[in-house]
Structure formats: C-alpha cells, structure tokens
C-alpha cells in the first residue's frame, strides 16, 4: 500500500447485538415442527440449517424464541396473525436506535475520540425505515453537534457497510480534520417469512440482527491497533441484477437469493481485486463479508486462501450469522483482536463485501500495531 499522508484509518470499532439468542439447532427443530404438514420443506430446513455455517444468531424479536405453535413468523399461521410490514417497522423503530447507540459509544471509546471531534455521521440500514431517521436520533442521544453532516445510506444491502467505509475515506482525504462516525444497524430477523418456500427458508437459516460502528479519521500517535485505509474499488458484476432481490412486501421485506451468487462472485471478483492489489503480491489479511458459507468457500478456493485467512469471516458467520451491512465491521473487529493477541506487526490486507446489484465493494487495509513503529517501517519499505 502506498504511504498515505496523513494516515487515514479506522480508529475505533464497536459492535452490539440484541438480547435474544437464536440457537441454530433449536430454531431448526421448531421450524421443522411448524412445517410438519409439508415434509419436503421440513427436510430442506433440517439440511440447510445444518449446512449454512451458523451455530447461533441474535434477534430483537422475542416471539422468534417461542414454540412452533406460538411463533408468528413460522409457517402455518393465519393471515391475521402474521406480523404486517407496519408492525415490523414499528418494532424496528423501537429497537434500532438503542442498538446503534450501544455500538457507536463503544467505537468512540475504542477510537479515543471526543464527541466534539465528529464532523460526519453516516448511518446505514436496509431492514427498516422511519423519519426523522436514525441519523437525527443518534445526533440527539449522543449529544453530537447539530451541524454534523448527516449521510443516511438506506436500502443498499449487505455491501453498504463497506461502502460507508470507502465514502468516509474519501471525506477524510478531502478534509484531514474530519472525523466520521459510521453506524450500521440491521434487524434482519424481523423479515423472516411464514413460508414453506425454499427461498424464504434459506434466508431464515442464516440472517441475524446486529449493529456495528466505527470512527474513521486521520490518526496520530495516540492511536494503536488500527486499520489504515488505502485504494478502493466499487463495481457492479455483469449479468447479475436479478440474482439478489430485496423488495418491500405486505408481510415484511421479501428476499430472493439465487444459488448462482457464489459462482458469480468466484468468476468475477478475482479480476476486480486486481484493481486494488498486485496479483504477484497477494495480501495476507482478508476481511470477507460472510454473505453465506458458499461465498467464503468459493473465494477461499479461487484465491487459494488458507483456513487461517478466512477464519474471521467464518467465526462471525458461525456466532452471529449474516447481519447484512453491519457484518463487515464485526469481521474487521474479529481480525483486529486476533492480530493484537498474536502481537502481529504491520500487515497488508483487503476487505470486500457484496450486495444487490450484484455490487462488489473492495478496499485495501493495512494493520498498524502502532503509528510510530509504522512510520519507521515506512522508511524502509511500503506496507
């Protein structure tokens, strides 16, 4: 990575999940029971819940822990008992802001940044909407300046968290005094559908709720254990617009994920990576958005990555599921903790995420254990 002057980096990260934990085996058992009149779908649930790489997720909806008979989000319910989109959005409005604030406060403390330093706020979500939005609520509750530049990124899907990181880098590059707070909140489980269709059951198998936040700005000597941000790249993969579809329905949002998605990513992403990395100098660190087990498996194979390199993504998928836009910061935090525990030195990396379009977002990262050490190393070689 070329030397940046000043160094633009992720200075702090915070994550948060709701109180209710969905055990994968228990959820599979209850959902299978709800599908007792449809044995083909019940068998599909048992298989996909076991194979999707998830052991636990979190939800803001207590009813999702109820028995098959009492869960309003499972198949076999009358139309009147299924939560409407309006009811789901009311739940989103109640739950999203407190969860986002929890992650934001952690990121601010972790980044050693004063509230008064924050100049921009980017809020990210695709699982709910209301106005005045989450951006205005966060400004009020955190006590940020009312003049903070608020940028909501809404309904952009799983890639939006990394899109916000790339946008923040551009902001700080233009204004080195800027400090950008990103807050991603996704309550995916609110959109579980009471359906026996395979598409709906597949989505129900691995999406979870969570919030993540980070501070991006120019760093000084007081910041340690950070990710420097480098060159970025954004593209739409060809012939893939209908492979990932997310639309508003009467009973929540309706999701369609094509089984071709991992194959498309494996075919086109290696070429896109060449826009930000040298093919003969593959980075050591990989922060891959775990959109699903198949995506991680495919990229590991086509890029010849090791189990160690994909372990942060697999760990987040296993313990939290896919939390849409919020997930990539969970992966970066997992990767950072791992590097800190191993007392690792400066290390090259790349972060990438995917969303409807199919959109591919990529950015160079470089782990810096200490800024002082990094500056000494940069005199001898590029990170």
TrEMBL record:
KW tRNA-binding (keyword) present: no
GO BP: polyketide biosynthetic process
Active-site residues annotated for this sequence: 158
Pfam families: Chal_sti_synt_C, Chal_sti_synt_N
Keywords annotated in UniProt: Transferase
The keyword Transferase appears for this protein: yes
Gene3D superfamilies according to UniProt: 3.40.47.10
All copies of domain Chalcone/stilbene synthase C-terminal, residue ranges: 233-365
Occurrences of domain Chalcone/stilbene synthase N-terminal (ranges): 9-218
GO molecular function, one term: acyltransferase activity, transferring groups other than amino-acyl groups
Record-stated family: Belongs to the thiolase-like superfamily. Chalcone/stilbene synthases family.
Protein name: Type III polyketide synthase
Organism this protein belongs to: Paenibacillus contaminans
């Amino acid at each position: 990575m070329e030397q940046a002057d000043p160094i633009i980096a992720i200075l702090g990260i915070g994550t948060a999940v709701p109180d209710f934990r969905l055990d994968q085996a228990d959820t599979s058992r209850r959902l299978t029971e709800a599908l007792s009149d449809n044995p083909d779908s019940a068998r599909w649930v048992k298989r996909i819940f076991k194979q999707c790489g998830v052991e636990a997720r979190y939800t803001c909806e207590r009813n999702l822990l109820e028995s098959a008979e009492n869960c309003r989000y499972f198949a076999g319910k009358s139309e009147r008992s299924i939560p409407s989109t309006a009811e789901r959005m009311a739940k989103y409005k109640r739950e999203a802001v407190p969860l986002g604030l929890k992650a934001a406060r952690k990121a601010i403390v972790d980044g050693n940044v004063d509230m008064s330093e924050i100049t921009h706020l980017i809020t990210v979500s695709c699982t709910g909407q209301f106005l005045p939005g989450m951006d205005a609520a966060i400004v009020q509750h955190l006590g940020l300046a009312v003049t903070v530049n608020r940028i909501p990124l809404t309904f952009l899907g799983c890639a939006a968290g990394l899109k916000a990181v790339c946008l923040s880098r551009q902001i700080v590059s233009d204004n080195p005094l800027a400090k950008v707070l990103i807050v991603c909140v996704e309550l995916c489980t609110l959109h579980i559908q009471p359906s026996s269709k395979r598409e709906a059951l597949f989505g129900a198998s691995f999406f979870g709720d969570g919030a993540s936040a980070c501070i991006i700005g120019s760093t000084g000597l007081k910041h340690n254990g950070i990710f420097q941000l480098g060159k970025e790249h954004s593209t739409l993969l060809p012939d893939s617009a209908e492979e990932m579809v997310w639309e508003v329905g009467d009973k929540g949002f309706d999701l369609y994920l094509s089984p071709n998605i991992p194959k498309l990513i494996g075919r086109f992403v290696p070429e896109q990576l060449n826009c930000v990395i040298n093919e003969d100098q593959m980075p050591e660190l990989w922060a891959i958005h775990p959109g699903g087990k198949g995506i991680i498996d495919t990229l590991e194979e086509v890029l010849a990555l090791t189990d160690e390199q994909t372990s942060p993504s697999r760990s987040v998928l296993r313990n939290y599921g896919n939390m849409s836009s919020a997930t990539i910061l969970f992966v970066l935090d997992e990767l950072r903790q791992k590097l800190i525990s191993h007392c690792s030195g400066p290390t090259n990396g790349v972060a990438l995420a995917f969303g409807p379009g199919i959109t591919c977002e990529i950015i160079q990262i470089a782990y810096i254990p200490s800024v002082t050490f990094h500056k000494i190393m940069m005199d001898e070689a590029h990170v």
